Amino acid sequence: MPASPQPQQIIALVVRHNTAGVEEPVGRIRDFLQEAGYRVVFEAETAANLQLAGTDSMTVPQIGAQATVGIVVGGDGTMLGIARQLAEYDIPLVGINLGRLGFITDIPLDDMLPALGEILQGRSRAEKRTLLEARVMRGGERIFCSVAVNDVVVARGTGAGMVELKLTVDGQFMYNQRSDGLIVSTPTGSTAYALSAGGPLLHPSLGGTVLVPIAPHALSNRPIVVPDTSEIMVELVSGRDISVNFDMQTFTSLQLGDQIVISRSPHTITFLHPLDWSYYHTLRQKLHWNEYPTNDGRLK
C-alpha cells in the first residue's frame, strides 16, 4: 500500500502591530514559507492589523494545538507577549528583529529568509528559557496570577514615596527593604530592567533567579541570585500606589498586606536560533562591548 500523505505543517506568524512598512517583509516571509510547502497562518490580532490579502488566522489556543513553529516579527516586546501566551503549548519560537535591541528576536531582516530556511530544515540551535509565575494573595485568597518571561516587578507609582517590602525565600526571612521597588528576574530578564537597575548578567542556562532592589534606601541592599527552585514571597509593609507587573505588559494594583508569591513556572520557552548563534555575540553586539567612538562620534 502507498504511504499515507504527511499532513501539511502549519507555521504561525505573529507581527508587531502598527509598524509602518511591515507588510513587505512579512509578505516575503509568507511567500517563502508557502513555496516551501508550509501552511501559513497569522495570529488573530496580527491578521486584524495587517493589510495583507488572503491571510488565514488562528487564535493563540488554536496555534498552540496545531502549529509546528511560531515566527515572531518585531522586537523583544512582541516576543515576550506571545511567548507568555504560548508557553503552556511548548511551541518553538523564532524571532525576526524589527526592534532596536533584539536580545531574543535575534535574526536581522537582511538574513531572515536564509536563516528561516536553515532552521526549518532542522539546522538550528534550540535553547530553552525558564519563566516565572506569580500569584497575588490577599487575606489568604488568590486574587491574581500571571507568568513572566523577563521579570516580575513590584514598584511604587509616580509621585509616591518609598515602599517597604518584606522578603522571604523558601520560608526564611531575608530582609525588610525600603526602596522604590523590587525586580525579580529570570536569566532572560537579566538583560532588561534588572540590568538598568544594576543587576548582574545571568547566562540563560543558569538555574537562578535574581532579586534587584530599585533605588534602595540602604546601599547595602544589593542584588542577589537565588536558586530558581526557590519560592520567593514579597509582602507589602508600607507605601502607597503600589502595583505588580509582569514583563511590563500585565499589571495589577496592590494593597498593604498583599503577598506576591513567585516561583519558577513548570513551563519553558524554546527559541530556535541559526547554528552560528552565540549568546556572547549577542551581548557584544547589543551592549557595544569593545567598541569605541571614532572622530565623527560613531561606534567602531
Task: Provide an overview of this structure.
With 300 residues, the chain is of the alpha/beta class. The chain has 2 domains: 10-122, Rossmann fold (3-Layer(aba) Sandwich), CATH 3.40.50; 131-266, Probable inorganic polyphosphate/atp-NAD kinase, domain 2 (Tumour Suppressor Smad4). It contains 7 helices and 18 strands. The protein has helices at residues 23-35, 44-49, 60-66, 76-86, 112-120, 193-196, 279-287; strands at residues 10-15, 39-43, 56-58, 69-74, 93-97, 107-108, 124-138, 141-148, 151-156, 163-169, 172-179, 181-185, 208-214, 224-227, 232-238, 242-246, 250-253, 259-274. The protein has a 6-stranded parallel β-sheet with strand order 3-2-1-4-5-6, sandwiched between helices. A 6-stranded antiparallel β-sheet has the order 8-7-18-15-10-11. Helix 1 links the parallel strand 1 (10-15) and strand 2. The radius of gyration is 21 Å and the shape is globular. Residues 1-5 have low confidence and may be disordered.
Helix content: 10-25%
Intertermini distance: 63 Å
Look at the structure and give the CATH class of the largest domain.
Answer: Mainly Beta
SSE succession: EHEHEHEHEEHEEEEEEHEEEEEEH
Q: Could you describe the largest sheet, including whether it forms a barrel?
A: 6 strands, parallel
Overall outline:
globular
Q: What structural category characterises the helix and strand content?
A: alpha/beta
Give me the count of strands: 18
State the strand order across the main sheet: 3-2-1-4-5-6
CATH superfamily of the largest domain: Probable inorganic polyphosphate/atp-NAD kinase, domain 2
CATH architecture of the largest domain: Sandwich
